[in-house]
Design a protein that fits this description.
Length: about 180
């Protein structure tokens, strides 16, 4: 589901939420381990501040979104992409969406984090960077390098999220030798 499709779903259901922020929260939550669909719906309902009727109306569309988000995170060929607005929007608006995505990713991790939450040194650095990106400021003069820098920033986030996901899901590591019990 694209940013625009999720935005349309939110509009149709009268949900006042940022699609990038919601996807960030969802990816953070999914990164913490297996989540029962009911538990994920409940966490999302709370995050989106949905009334019961909105929650019921959104369930099918959001269930598909949950499953595709998890599938993209689990994909070993690194297809994961944060849900962000199209390149047609001004850079400042897209940077705000990146900040929303990152801060809510950290929030989702916090929501789903259990007692044992260990990531590699690289994963810890990626989380610190993602948290810092969540505080992004758009008070700047845009130049031609802005688009390239934006692309590199999104690519860094994409790789960082996949690194953290891999740290938290060692069972998906294709480089490790299979263990025999």
């Amino acid at each position: 589901m694209t940013f625009e499709q999720l935005e349309d779903l939110f509009y149709a259901l009268k949900i006042n939420a940022n699609p990038s922020g919601f996807h960030g929260f969802l990816c953070g939550r999914l990164s913490c381990g297996a989540v029962d669909m009911h538990e994920l719906v409940e966490a999302s309902t709370k995050w989106l501040a949905l009334a019961e009727e909105q929650s019921e109306a959104a369930e099918n569309g959001l269930s598909e979104f949950y499953e595709s988000s998890l599938s993209n995170l689990q994909d070993l060929s690194f297809l994961f992409q944060p849900v962000l607005p199209d390149d047609e929007l001004p850079l400042a608006e897209r940077l705000v969406a990146v900040g929303e995505w990152c801060s809510n990713y950290i929030s989702g991790l916090g929501d789903g984090m259990g007692e044992e939450f260990e990531v590699s040194v690289d994963g810890k650095e990626a989380l610190e960077d993602i948290a810092a990106i969540g505080q992004i400021s758009v008070d700047f003069e845009s130049d031609d390098d802005g688009e390239r820098d934006f692309f590199e920033l999104v690519e860094y986030i994409r790789i960082g999220v996949q690194l953290v996901f891999a740290d938290l899901h060692p069972e998906l590591d294709t480089d490790s030798e299979p263990t025999v019990h």
